[in-house]
Every structure is written in structure tokens, then in C-alpha cells.
Amino acid sequence: MEYTIVVAETANSPATLQYLAPYIGAALAEYFMYCEQHTLIIYDDLSKQAQAYCQMSLLLRKPPGL
């Protein structure tokens, strides 16, 4: 676990953080990939990200999915 980074957001976290967490994890992995390090990303449950996206879309008064 010496070279491990965990990006986690719980169900209690704000919708914006739940939506951004997978992108933050991917950005960190890309950084280490470009530094010629081995990377591995594991996404546990992306349905929460979809729900957070719908919540943010409703708050911004934009139809989800566009």
C-alpha cells in the first residue's frame, strides 16, 4: 500500500464531489502514467455518479444527458 492513492466519496458527500471523484481518479492515474509508472483504476459503483449528475443537472436547469 506504499504507492496507493484512494479517491472515495460516500453517499453523504455533496453531488458535485460524487460526480467529480471518478474524473479526479482518472486524472491522477494519467499523471502517473505519463511519469512512466504503472497504474490501475478500479471503479466500484458508477450509478451514484449518474444520480449525482442528474441532481446537478436539475439544479442547473439543464436536461440530463445533453
Automatic annotation (TrEMBL):
GO terms for cellular component: proton-transporting ATP synthase complex. InterPro entries: ATP_synth_F1_asu, ATPase_F1/V1/A1_a/bsu_nucl-bd, P-loop_NTPase. Pfam families: ATP-synt_ab. Coiled coil: none annotated. One of its GO terms (molecular function) is ADP binding. Residues 1-65 form the ATPase F1/V1/A1 complex alpha/beta subunit nucleotide-binding domain. SUPFAM superfamilies: P-loop containing nucleoside triphosphate hydrolases. Gene3D superfamilies: 3.40.50.12240. Belongs to the ATPase alpha/beta chains family. This is ATPase F1/V1/A1 complex alpha/beta subunit nucleotide-binding domain-containing protein. It comes from Gossypium lobatum.
